[in-house]
Amino acid sequence: MHEIMTIEEVAAYIRVSERTVYDWAQKSELPGGKLGTTWRFKRADIEKWVNDRLSKEAAVKSGSKKAATASFVLTRERVVLLDHPSKKEVLTQLVDLLAETPFVKNRDALLKGILEREELMSTGIGFGIGVPHVRIDSVTDLVMAVAVSKNPVTDYTSLDEAPVQIICMLAARTDQHTKYIRTLSAISSRLKDPDVRREIIASNDPAAICKLLIDSEQ
To answer: At residue 205, does pLDDT exceed 90?
Structure first.
């Protein structure tokens, strides 16, 4: 995976136009630098920028952790416990769970979108958490599935190199930007609590894991 990204790669990663990335870079709103006349961006800087932005938007839009976590579209039926999976096995199983919902119209298109997103940049955000996500036309509403691996997913690279064990997959309709960002923010905020992470990994009860993720009053 390349450590240096182009404007095109950053635009695809954060789902905005190349012109928007250029404007943000010109205004120093996005971390980057010029090599001659060409903008280049460090992958780690972009990951950090995205995570910081998500956290800020969560605080502004939700007003409280409970309000943010209430936006999760998750049920116990979409929580799966695994043992020694590969990254692709985890992603495929979560896509299959989402494809069982009425919100996903094309399972293969969703899997393709998720895998392409991961090829661009791993969604291991640190703290042992992976958040594969995509907005795609074949999804009619935001939906979520979760995998918990009792052992680390060894080929799931992460920003802080911590082994990934909790994987939360989000799929949303292309135009659901606000709800999508709010939910990503809530996941990140909730799972930054080490006690919540430990309880989730130790649990063998999908219903309890679901409650830990969506109920802030633990």
So the answer is: yes
